[in-house]
Write a structure and sequence with these properties.
The chain is an alpha/beta fold. The protein is 47% helix and 13% strand. It is built from 9 helices and 6 strands.
Length: 236
């Protein structure tokens, strides 16, 4: 069983168009509702960590109403998670990663409240990647490393000698979290699009044709079965 599963939630708009739904808030609330199913399935299977990519900096280029629909759905889901007794009964801890400076204040408040309310839970960890991009994460990690060393009075030459993969990793958003064993992308697209670029170097990948709101337990189980059939070589 994979310890850490990453999921790229793709296909919300295609799912909506097929059902003649055009209101952004409705479209993305359908996708947000699917999160409850995935958390329940993961808990039942004993999966310890799930990281879900829900919004990237590139999404800011979409129409304003769509961006507001996505972020509004994420905010509502964050608040719903805090109030959900199943979250606390299962011991689920909620976290978020990404660039907070591009997110609206109401969403930031909802994230802070969800993280605080579940910080004592020690069951499964669910991390929402909001305002997240893989290149942005690596850029921020290198910047953080440089600023940290500069604060200790190190010269640029000395800092350069300390730039190692492990040193950069310590400054990643998920620096202390194990890399994902399995990454799933819904909607049939066959690419990572920047999801966990650093952490996915040894991840097994599974691409599912089903759009995210229609993702079923059997689709999840097929992805896990595919993972279990593979011989992990870690580059060997």
């Amino acid at each position: 069983m994979p310890h850490h599963v990453g999921i790229i939630l793709d296909g919300n708009r295609r799912h909506a168009r097929a059902r003649r739904l055009y209101e952004p808030e409705i479209i993305y609330r359908l996708g947000a509702a699917k999160l409850d199913d995935v958390l329940a399935w993961s808990a039942d299977l004993g999966i310890a960590m799930v990281t879900l990519w829900v919004f990237s900096p590139n999404n800011l280029g979409r129409p304003e109403a769509e961006v507001e629909g996505i972020l509004g759905a994420v905010e509502a889901k964050m608040r719903a998670l805090v109030a959900d007794p199943h979250i606390h009964r299962r011991g689920i801890r909620v976290a978020a990663i990404g660039r907070r400076d591009i997110l609206p204040p109401a969403l930031l408040q909802a994230i802070d409240e969800a993280e605080a309310a579940t910080s004592g839970n020690d069951g499964m960890t669910v991390t929402l990647a909001v305002g997240y991009g893989g290149r942005e994460e690596i850029t921020d990690a290198v910047r953080g490393l440089l600023l940290d060393r500069a604060a200790h009075g190190m010269s640029i030459t000395d800092v350069a000698s300390e730039i190692t993969p492990e040193a950069i990793r310590q400054h990643l958003y998920l620096g202390d979290v194990p890399d994902p064993d399995l990454i799933i992308r819904t909607s049939g697209e066959i690419r990572l699009s920047g999801f966990l670029l650093w952490q996915s170097v040894h991840s097994e990948l599974h691409f599912c044709d089903v759009n995210w709101p229609a993702f079923r337990r059997i689709d999840y189980l097929r992805a896990i079965r595919s993972f279990q059939r593979r011989e992990r070589r870690y580059g060997g």
